[in-house]
Specification:
The structure holds two protein chains of two kinds. Chain A is an all-alpha fold. Chain A has one domain (about 5-140). Helix content of chain A is about 75%, strand content about 0%. Chain A is built from seven helices and no strands. The longest helix of chain A is centred in the C-terminal third of the chain and has 37 residues, at about 105-140. Chain A is flat. The relative contact order of chain A is 0.14. By secondary structure, chain B is of the alpha/beta class. Chain B has a domain at about 35-90 and about 155-225 and about 325-405 and about 430-465. In chain B, a hairpin with a 6-residue loop joins strand 18 and strand 19 (about 425-430). In chain B, helix 1 packs parallel to helix 12 (about 515-530) and helix 4 packs across helix 12. Chain B is globular, with a radius of gyration of 23 Å. Classes of the chains: A mainly alpha, B alpha/beta. The interface of A and B includes residues 81 and 105 of A.
Amino acid sequence: MDMLQLERECRSYTRYLIGEPPTSYVIAKYRDFHQKIGVPEARDRFDRFLLAASAHGPLWARLADSYAGIWRKQSSLRAKLVVTLALLECAPPTYEKLDRCPSGGWFGALLRLSLAPAGYACSLLAATALFSPVHLWMKAAGEPR
Amino acid sequence: MDPIVVVGSGASGVHFALAALRKGRRVTMLDVGHTGQQPVLPRETLIGLKRNLDDPALYFLGSRYQSLVLPGNEGEYYAFPPAKEHVFRSQPGFAFRNDGFSPLYSFAAGGLAEVWTGGCYPFDSRDLQDFPFAYEELGPYYGRVAQNIGVAGAKDDLAAVFPYHDGLMEPLQLDDHSAVLLDSYQRRRRRLQERFHCLMGRARLAVLSRNLGARKACDYSGRCLWGCPSQAFYTPSITLAECRQYSGFTYCPGLYVDYFRMDSAGRIAGVAASTRDGQTREIAAGALVLAAGTLSSARIYLESLYRDSGRTPELRGLMDNRQILMPFLNLRMIGRQWKPETYQYHQVAMAVRMDGGDMIHGLITTLKTALIHPLVQTLPFDLGTGVAAFRNFHGALGMININLPDRRREENFIALDTSVEPHRLVVHYRPPEGEPERLRRIIHVFRKILLQLRCFAPPKTIHVRPMGASVHYAGTRPMTTAGGPGTCTPHGASRDIENLYFADGSTFPSLPAKNLTFTLMANATRIAEEAF
C-alpha cells in the first residue's frame, strides 16, 4: 500500500470538499481505513485513471467526481470521497465548517442553491470534454494484458 | 413455591417483572443479556465529543468503520451508531430464514427497545376494538408506567387519538425546526383538519423533562442518536436495574432459553437454557412468562412443542407496522443555522385519518446530528457541490416516519424448520392485497400535507421500508374472550398450556399505526397485576 499516494489523495479530496487542507488526524484515519478495510477495487483501467487524476489537486478531484457521479457512481473514487467526507464530519476542526450554515439568511441560501446546479453543470461539461475521450479510448483498447 | 420465570429483559419482560416484584412475588429472569460499553465522556455534548475525544472517528464510525455508508449501500438515512451495536449482536445456536420479512433480533439486556426512539403513544378505544378489554381497563396502567419511566408530552390536538393519561411530564424544549413546523400547523390548522383529517402536536416521549428519582432531566446534550449518557432517555435496562434492587429478583444473564419441559400433566416443569460455554441448565418454574418478543417467544414455544410431541405447527397472524420514510425540506428553515444542543429524536407527531377510516401515524424528526455523508452522496451533484449545497439546507431537513396499521391474516406465520440443525425459525409474511395502491395514496396525502406546512418531499427520496424493519412484531398468540386453541386469555395465559403466559406483542389481536412499546409495558404490568 502506497502511503504517500493515500496522503496525496486525502489532501486533494479534503481541499476539494471543504477548501482546506486535512489535519494529520484525518490523514492518519484515511490511511487506517485503507489498511483495515479499503474501498472496492477499481473496476477497470478507467477507474484507475480517474483515481490517479483526482489525486492531482482539488480541481482534478472535482472534475473526476463530476464525471464519476454520472458514469461511475460506485467507483473507488466516489467511495474514497465519501470516506474523506465521513472523517471530516467527525473530527475537529473540520466538522465546524461542515455544520455551519453560510451567512446571508434565506435569500443568500436560495441564491447559493440556485447557483449550485449551474456550477455543477459547468464542471460536468468540462469533465465530459476531458474524460469521455479517454473513457471511450480505454473502453475500445480494453484492459492491458 | 417455584418462582415465576420470565424469559427476556425487553420492554415487556422488565415491566412484568417489576409489577410482580412489587406484589411480593419471586421472579427469575432468564436472558442472553448482551451489554454495551459505558458512555464515553458522559458530561460532554455531541460537539464536545467531536472536540475532545482522542479518536472521534472511532466513536462515530466504529473500529472497523462499520457506520460508514459507502456508495451502493444506501437505503437507510441513518448510519447505525457503533455504541449500540451490542443490541444486534448475534447468538450462537440461533438460526432463521425469512420470507418476505426482514426482522431484527436482539439478545441484549433491555432488548430491542434499547435502540427505540422513545415514542409513547397509548392505544385508544378504537385501537382496542379487537382486544378483550376496553381502554378503561388498560388506561390506568399507562399512567403507572408513565410515572415509572417518565413520559414528556402535552395536552394538545393529538389527545383526540392519543388518550391523555396520568403521569405525563411537561414537554421538552422544542428545537427551532420543530417549533416552525408546529407554527405552520397552527396557521393552517383548520384546513389541515378539514381537508386531510390531520392532527399535529407534541410528541409523547420517554424522556425526562424534570428529574425523576435518581435520574436527571434531559440536558440537551444532543447525543440521543449516539446513546443518551445520562439516562434521561428511558430504555428497559433502567427498569432491569430497578428490578435488581428487589431481594425476590434473580437475574440470570448468559442464558439462551432453548425450550420448556412439560410434565405428564401437561404443565411446564422447567426451562432448559444453554449457557455461554455450551452447557444446558434447567431452571424450575412455577409459571413461565414468555416476554422475549413475538419472534423469540414463538421460537421457544415451537421448539418446546416439537420436543414434547414432535408437532411443528405454524403460529399464524404475524403483524408488523409497514413504515415509510419521507425526507423533506422545510422552506421556512432554509439558510438558518441549527443547534446541535437539542433533543434529537422526533418532537412533533401527527395523525391522519385516511378515507378508509384507518389512522396513520407520522413521527417527524428534524435531522440534525445524524452523520451527513449518507445523505450528501444521494444529492444529484458531485460531492463538492453537494456539501456546499447541504450546508444551506441542513437546518431545514426533516423526516416523517409514517406508520401503517396491520391486521392478523392467516397467510402470515412463524414456523420452525426442524429439518436442519440447529432448528431454524421461519418467518413468512405477505403484505395485504392492494398494498401498493394504498401506499401510493398515503404518500400522496402526506406530500400534500407537507406542502401545506411549507415543506417539500422530493419524490425519489421516499423510502418504503421492508416489512420487519419497524420491529413492531405482534399477533401470533392473540388474547381473546371467545377462547380456542392458539389463543390467550385476556390476561395472557395460554389456553393450550396451563402455567404458560405470554406478556409480549404475541398477545395483540390487532396492530394500530402506533409504536407498540408503551402498550407492551402497560399490558405486561396489567397481566402481572391482575393474573398473579
